[in-house]
Specification:
The protein is of the alpha+beta class and 769 residues long. Helix 6 (209-220) crosses helix 7, helix 10 (356-374) crosses helix 11 (378-385) and helix 15 (524-551) crosses helix 16 (574-583). The chain is globular, with a radius of gyration of 27 Å.
Length: 769
């Protein structure tokens, strides 16, 4: 075995379960989050002043009373030394509102004082004179008014209108899906520490350290090199700390700049939910032309996304929705249009799935609508439209589906769950139960992995080997509980043939790995794992030459395994080889870099290969619906998830389970409500219901497909962070299935989330009431 292939033998650290690198610290309470860090001398606590209006002009701001409060050190409102713009994609998105406010909860000013109570008291004393302006609070009204945060988008191919006209059958419909709050355990927080020469160190709970670095630099008028952002861990993020965390980091840094003292800004849950963005609500309208077998010839879909008051990441979210609106289906003539609607609500942002859940829910509503129109099983209509061999293997955005294994995944699901027997059991139950009705539905997914913006598909890593054989690992990915750090550490340990506990992972820092991409798009392991592997292989190659010279063998024969380096029975301990390399002045440090190959995408034409590969999955869910109360209980879920050669099956299993339950929450119980004045009414766990332990299906089975990725990803693994969330659409479809089985001739009209009120309304419509 050559040095370049070392670690490929038995006893590998990868492709095996390993506990999360912070597991013991998590359960013991020793894990240090930003709010647990020892407070630096002179620390000030910050509080925000939020807009009470959805749309108003700022006439004047009076800070005198706040500044006069004993202990108050800094107050910020407009006095920004740099550029008041932290937009992640476009421009014109201020950290603190200037001239106008555009949603209830928008930060307008901030106060820093020695205690949090004093800061909040001072914030309450800030007086702002507003001139109220007309507000657009409803998606439909804003759509009709032409309010937009960006130009419309379109993905498609073929003559859609001609295909619709020629199709023997035709159907239309509309479906809506609501937003979702990220509800991470750790709220938004940042600690800014000023240094010499206006340098700023920021500890931020962010998925995108580089974006936070840029935002702070812009606001303070500093070069990027003067700002260091560090992230050891987050207590959850789910996309909510990709762009939104930059607001918190920038405001904390601004106050620290004014005070020349450290400042910590931590949002309480109510403020966090009011001031930061959510998953985009969508309204989807569709018209499909099809034949008696359910094969779709033409499809016209419009996706109206409620983006909130500014663009934020909405253009990318809508683009990804359009690129996932085909899901697993080949449609020869299609037009997918995205409309980026502006409302006077908080800017909606990244959320696990990043538009793909809305796109997939839409096409499944179409397929289900066609199946009900024809009186055929949904699975038959799906099978009639699956991607196949050329020419039925090209997506509307021009990418060939080269690794189509959806039929294999569905077959795996059928074998594991015995779907026909399961269906017969539900039919027997319903025949004897007029009030509690059960439903069963399946859900296939094809999820593209890579950022739609090609530039972001890159990563860096820094690896050091020390003379005792221990290894220091740093990379541009962030740990938010998903297990990225342990996966990348496994890759490095495997490359060196050493035990996992010999690799120490350090906090993500813009001072160690610059120009990082966000830890998002399910690409954390793909990008950072490969960058770390590149660095480890470079060091390993140098060490192999040292060992070869010591042992009198060719370097190509050197193997790194079981903590030893050598060939055959002639080996040296890994640490000993590291020590001898140092003695010979051989570099034991390397910076690795990786960029995803093959991908390209023209944003102007929405054509190209935006995804390096696809990951697949299939799920079946059984629900019970109380037709008197609208209550829903998920009784059983069976999941098959394609993970390639999983780097860590234990971590991946947790990701599948967590994503599915989070998707259930979006589709069943998590409902955001605003009052007539544009104020968020669901601002905490008392009014916003996330899934609890009793909502998890009591019969919950997950099967990971062990099938190597056909593309050269890190050790042939596949991404797993986002795809399983969309498998929860099976729950929403199962609720619709239960309602469709009721006596009656009415249609099934059920949007998401399927709250008790919506379920009862759907039951009444089905029964013709």
């Amino acid at each position: 075995m050559s040095a370049s292939d070392a670690g490929a033998g038995g006893g590998r650290v990868v492709h095996a379960p390993a506990r999360h690198e912070s597991a013991a610290a998590h359960v013991s309470g020793r894990a240090i989050y930003i709010d647990d860090m020892p407070e630096p001398p002179g620390l000030l606590h910050a509080a925000l002043v939020l807009s009470p209006h959805p749309h108003a002009r700022i006439r004047a701001i009076d800070l005198a009373a706040a500044r006069a409060l004993p202990g108050v050190v800094a107050v910020a409102a407009g006095d920004i030394p740099g550029i008041n713009d932290i937009a992640p994609i476009r421009t014109g998105e201020p950290a603190l509102a200037e001239g106008v406010v555009e949603y209830v909860g928008q930060p307008v000013a901030a106060v820093a004082a020695p205690t949090l109570d004093a800061a909040r008291a001072a914030a309450a004393l800030v007086r702002i004179d507003y001139e109220e302006l007309p507000a657009l609070l409803d998606l439909d009204a804003a759509y009709a008014a032409g309010a937009r945060v960006g130009p419309d988008q379109q993905v498609g191919r073929g003559d859609m209108e001609a295909a619709l006209a020629a199709a023997p059958l035709r159907a239309s419909g509309e479906v809506r899906c609501g937003g979702q709050d990220h509800f991470y355990l750790e709220g938004q927080i940042a600690l800014a520490v000023p240094g010499e020469d206006r340098d700023m160190q920021v500890f931020s709970s962010t998925q995108h350290p580089t974006e936070a670095q840029h935002g702070v630099a812009h606001v303070l008028g500093l070069p990027f090199a003067a700002v260091t952002v560090e992230v050891r861990r987050m207590g959850g993020a789910f996309g909510g700390k990709e762009s939104q965390a930059t607001i918190i980091a920038a405001v904390a840094a601004l106050l620290a700049h004014h005070a020349r003292r450290p400042v910590k800004l931590r949002l309480p849950r109510e403020v966090d939910m009011e001031a930061t963005g959510k998953r985009h609500p969508f309204r989807i309208r569709w018209t499909a032309g099809f034949d008696a077998d359910g094969r779709i010839a033409g499809l016209d879909m419009e996706f109206a996304a409620d983006c909130g008051n500014v663009a934020d990441l909405s253009p990318a979210v809508v683009s990804r929705a359009l690129c996932h609106a085909d899901n697993c289906y080949f449609i020869p003539a299609a037009r997918y249009r995205g409309v980026l609607v502006k409302t006077n609500t908080v800017s909606n942002t990244a959320f696990r799935g990043f538009g793909a859940p809305q796109g997939m829910l839409a096409i499944e509503a179409v397929v289900e609508g066609i199946a009900r129109h024809l009186g055929r099983p949904v699975e038959e209509v799906r099978a009639a439209n699956y991607y196949g061999d050329a020419p039925r293997n090209v997506t509307p955005y021009g990418q060939e589906v080269e690794d189509n294994i959806i039929a294999e995944a569905m077959a795996h699901l059928d074998a594991a769950a015995d779907l026909p027997a399961w269906r017969r059991g539900i039919e027997a139950f319903n025949a004897a139960s007029p009030v509690i009705r059960k439903g069963l539905a399946t859900m296939p997914i094809k999820f593209g992995v890579s950022f739609n913006l090609t530039t972001l598909n890159q990563a860096g890593a820094l690896v050091h080997v020390y003379t005792d054989g221990s290894v220091h690992l740093n990379h541009g990915g962030t740990e938010m509980g998903q297990g990225l750090f342990v996966k990348v550490a496994q890759v490095v340990a495997d490359a060196f043939g050493i035990a996992l506990d010999h690799v120490r992972v350090s906090a993500t820092s813009t001072a160690k790995v610059p120009n990082t991409s966000p830890t998002a798009a399910s690409s954390g392991s793909d990008l950072n794992g490969m960058a770390a592997l590149v660095a480890a292989r470079e060091i390993r190659g140098r060490m192999a030459k040292v060992a070869a010279a010591e042992l009198g063998v060719d370097a190509a024969e050197i193997v790194f395994a079981h903590g030893q380096v050598g060939a055959g029975n002639r080996t040296l301990p890994f640490g000993e080889v590291a020590k001898r390399a140092w003695q010979q002045r051989v570099q034991l440090s390397a910076a690795g870099f990786y960029k995803t190959p093959k991908i390209h995408f023209d944003m102007a034409t929405s054509q190209g290969r935006p995804f390096y590969y696809y990951t697949y999955g299939a799920a079946a869910a059984e629900v019970a619906v109380d037709t008197l109360t609208g209550a829903v209980r998920v009784l059983r879920a069976e999941i098959v998830q394609d993970c390639g050669r999983s780097l860590n099956p234990a971590i991946d299993l947790g990701q599948v389970e967590g994503a599915f339950v989070q998707g259930m929450g979006w589709l069943t119980c998590e409902e955001l409500r605003w009052d007539a004045a544009g104020r968020l009414a669901t601002r905490g766990p008392s009014t916003y219901k996330i899934p609890g332990s009793r909502d998890v299906p009591p019969d919950f089975r997950v099967h990971l497909m062990d099938r190597p990725n056909r593309e050269e990803t890190v050790l042939r693994s596949k991404a797993v962070g986002e795809p399983p969330l969309m498998l929860a659409i099976s729950v929403w479809l199962a609720i619709r299935d239960a309602i469709a089985g009721l006596p009656g001739e009415g249609p099934v009209v059920l949007d998401a989330p399927a709250s008790p009120e919506r379920v009862l309304a759907a039951v009444a419509t089905r029964r013709g009431r």
